[in-house]
Specification:
about 200 residues; mainly beta; five-stranded mixed sheet
């Protein structure tokens, strides 16, 4: 089957899925999660919403808090093109996002990563993405989601350029993400507001 994999740089990729199990919303990721675990959790998060409420298809940031895990805050790119989003992040949450990413088999990821390029700037300071060349991941998707379109457990190879951040200081932050692989390009300008810790 064909999946319309989107976000910070995805292509339509053929994968085998084991359908029939409705996944629960993401709950915990863990600061010490491996890169494969991080990718699996992020893709599960991305595949937990239909297009109208999906954080990847979000034009303004109104969907950025959908199904967030309790101990991490995920950010998304786009299915192609540019978006400007405002997003409020709870105090003390580490942040993770792909600059460019995809999933498929080893051949798909190798082809994707050949031309994958991206930058991320937080408050004007460049962030250095981590490169994940291709790792075995498992994601769980709901029926009608905007990433795979199917319901079930999917085993695949995940790859991309990723950024992980410790929790940000309370207040306003500007995050600029740009990515490209082949003819696919994506970009998001985030106006982030980190909440102050509760007293």
């Amino acid at each position: 089957m064909k999946f319309n994999c989107g976000l910070v740089g995805l292509a339509a990729i053929a994968l085998a899925a084991l359908a029939g199990c409705r996944p629960a919303s993401p709950t915990t990721v863990g600061a010490g999660a491996s890169s494969a675990e991080l990718q699996g959790h992020w893709w599960t998060w991305a595949a937990s919403e239909p297009e109208e409420t999906n954080p990847i298809a979000d034009d303004d940031g109104s969907a950025c808090d959908r199904n967030q895990p309790r101990d991490m805050w995920f950010l998304a790119g786009t299915f192609g093109g540019h978006a400007k989003r405002a997003c409020t992040i709870p105090a003390g949450r580490p942040v993770a996002f792909p600059v460019m990413n995809s999933f498929g088999d080893h051949t798909d990821c190798a082809a994707f990563m050949i031309s994958a390029y991206g930058t991320a700037f937080l408050d004007g300071e460049m962030l250095e993405p981590e490169t994940y060349e291709g790792e075995s991941i498992t994601l769980h998707s709901v029926r009608g989601n905007a990433v795979t379109g199917t319901e079930g457990h999917i085993r695949a190879i995940g790859c991309g350029l990723w950024v992980r951040l410790q929790s940000l200081e309370p207040g306003a932050h500007a995050l600029r993400i740009r990515g490209q692989s082949g003819e696919f390009s994506t970009g998001v300008d985030y106006a982030l507001t980190v909440e102050a810790p509760s007293s």
